[in-house]
C-alpha cells in the first residue's frame, strides 16, 4: 500500500531528453497565479517549473501585477489578464480558454486570492482542461465548497494541501495521516499530496511516503515552488502519481542540501538553485 521513493528510483522515473530535443518537445505549462500583494507566489511557482526541466512556461497574472512579474522573471512567457480588485476576473476566461488546448499541464492557485472571479476561472479551467491540472493554495480554498468540480472532472487532477487546506476539503487532520489522505483522494478522484513532515502522495489506492526535507523549509513560498515542480513534471509527460512523488522528493532533497549550510535561513530560491544538480 505504501512505498518510499529512493534517489535511484526518482532518477529512473524522470523524463529523459533526446539529443534533438527543443523547447516545444519538453513540455508546455500554463500557470494561473498571483494577485495584488502576492506576486512572489507566481514567481516561485514559475521558477519551480523552470528549474525542473520544462521547455515552456506561460504565466498568466492580473494586469496590475504584470509589470512586477516581468521584472522578476525573464524566462517565462508572462501575459496580463483581466482583473477585478487585483485578482483575476471572469473576463480573463476567453484568453485562458484559448490557450488551454496548447498546454500539456496547468497550475492554478498560488497567490490567486479568493473572489467570484477567481472561482469562475478555477471552475472553467477544471471543466475545460483535458490535460492534468495541479490545484494549490487559494485554488484549493476556492474548491472547498465546490468539491463536485473535482469529482466531475475527467482529466487528471493533483491537489497539494497543507493540513489546514486538507481540513477545509473535508479531510480529518487529526490522528493517522495516511488513512484520511487516501479516503479524500478516493472521494475527490485525484492524486493528493498531503504536505508536512513525511509528506504523503496518494491516489487512494497506493501511497508514496516521502523521507526528504527538514524543518528549515518552514518558510513562506516553499509550497509555491513545489506546485511549479509538480506541473513541470506533468507537462513533461510523467503520470500524476510519479510526477507528484518525484517532485516532493526532489523538493525535500534540495531543502536538505541547503539546510546543511544555510540552516533556518534557507529560502525557496535557494532550493531552486540546487534543483538542477539533483536532476542529473
* CATH fold group: UDP-N-acetylmuramoyl-L-alanine:D-glutamate ligase
Report, as a whole number of angstroms, the end-to-end distance: 29 Å
State the CATH superfamily name: Ribokinase
- Judged by helices, strands and strand pairing, the structural class is alpha/beta
The overall number of domains is 1
Q: Which class in CATH terms?
A: Alpha Beta
Q: Which second-level CATH architecture applies?
A: 3-Layer(aba) Sandwich
The major β-sheet equals: 10 strands, mixed
Tell me, briefly, the overall form. globular
Q: Cα-atom Rg, whole angstroms?
A: 17 Å
Helix and strand pattern: EHEHEHEEEHEHEHHEHHEEEHHH
Output the strand order for the largest sheet: 1-12-11-10-9-8-7-2-3-4
Q: Level of helix content?
A: 40-55%
Fraction in beta strands? 15-25%
Our count of helices gives 12
Report the uncertain regions: none
Number of strands: 12
Amino acid at each position: 500500500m505504501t512505498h518510499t521513493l529512493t534517489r535511484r528510483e526518482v532518477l529512473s522515473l524522470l523524463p529523459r531528453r533526446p539529443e534533438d530535443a527543443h523547447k516545444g518537445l519538453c513540455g508546455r505549462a500554463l500557470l494561473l497565479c498571483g494577485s495584488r500583494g502576492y506576486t512572489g507566489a507566481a514567481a516561485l511557482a514559475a521558477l519551480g517549473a523552470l528549474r525542473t526541466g520544462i521547455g515552456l512556461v506561460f504565466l498568466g497574472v492580473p494586469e496590475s501585477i504584470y509589470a512586477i512579474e516581468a521584472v522578476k522573471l525573464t524566462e517565462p512567457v508572462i501575459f496580463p489578464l483581466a482583473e477585478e480588485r487585483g485578482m483575476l476576473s471572469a473576463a480573463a476566461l476567453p484568453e485562458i480558454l484559448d490557450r488551454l488546448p496548447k498546454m500539456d499541464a496547468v497550475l492554478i492557485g498560488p497567490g490567486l486570492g479568493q473572489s467570484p472571479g477567481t472561482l469562475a476561472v478555477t471552475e472553467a479551467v477544471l471543466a475545460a482542461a483535458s490535460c492534468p491540472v495541479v490545484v494549490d493554495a487559494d485554488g484549493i480554498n476556492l474548491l472547498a465548497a465546490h468539491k463536485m468540480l473535482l469529482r466531475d472532472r475527467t482529466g487528471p487532477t493533483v491537489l497539494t494541501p497543507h493540513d489546514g487546506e486538507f481540513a477545509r476539503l473535508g479531510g480529518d487532520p487529526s490522528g493517522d495521516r495516511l488513512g484520511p489522505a487516501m479516503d479524500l483522494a478516493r472521494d475527490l478522484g485525484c492524486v493528493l499530496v498531503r504536505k508536512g513532515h513525511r509528506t504523503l502522495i496518494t491516489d487512494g489506492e497506493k501511497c508514496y511516503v516521502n523521507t526528504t526535507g527538514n524543518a528549515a523549509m518552514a518558510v513562506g513560498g516553499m509550497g509555491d515552488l513545489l506546485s511549479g515542480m509538480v506541473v513541470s513534471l506533468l507537462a513533461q509527460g510523467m503520470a500524476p502519481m510519479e510526477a507528484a512523488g518525484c517532485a516532493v522528493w526532489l523538493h525535500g532533497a534540495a531543502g536538505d542540501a541547503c539546510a546543511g549550510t544555510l540552516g533556518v535561513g534557507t529560502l525557496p530560491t535557494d532550493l531552486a538553485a540546487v534543483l538542477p544538480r539533483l536532476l542529473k
